[in-house]
Amino acid sequence: xxxxxxxxxxxxxxxxxxxxxxxxSLRRTQMKxxxxxxxxxxxxxxxxxxxxDVDFIGLVRRxxxxxxxxxxxxxxxxxxxxxxxxxxxxxxxxxxxxxxxxDKERKKKEHDAVTVLHPTATVHSAKLRVDGIHKYLDHNSFxxxxxxxxxxxxxxxxxxxxxxx
Length: 165
Description:
This protein is an alpha+beta fold. Helix content is about 40%, strand content about 15%. The protein has four helices and five strands; from the N terminus they run ααβαββββα. Strands 2-3-4 form a three-stranded antiparallel beta sheet, with helices on one face. The chain has a two-stranded parallel sheet with strand order 1-5.
């Protein structure tokens, strides 16, 4: 209960203090829930085989969700001579295949920092802002003739890269 001033109105200072206490209590509850959520997310990442920094993994996951529809289907190479040259097929085809994290990287608690969405491969570099608190990602994308993620089968890689030869 707030004090009453001489005119019978509640004391404004006391009302502000009560509002600040209520806001502080709400912030503490939110922070406690955020810690619980973070611990649960860390356990999910560990069980999924990706034990790295929870914040960076979350940033990469959100980036992948935002860019999920950007991958294009693979197409077979055209056997025709596109260069108009000597009649032989002198095209160069540059392809990559992403590998999954190995046990050594998992032990070091490194996170999956490469996203492959054909025809690009994006490297996510984990960074800290100047304040040393806020985290962000720097994305570098590279374009290839064919790019395959860690879930691509050897048959699929062969079908689009070596079989046309």
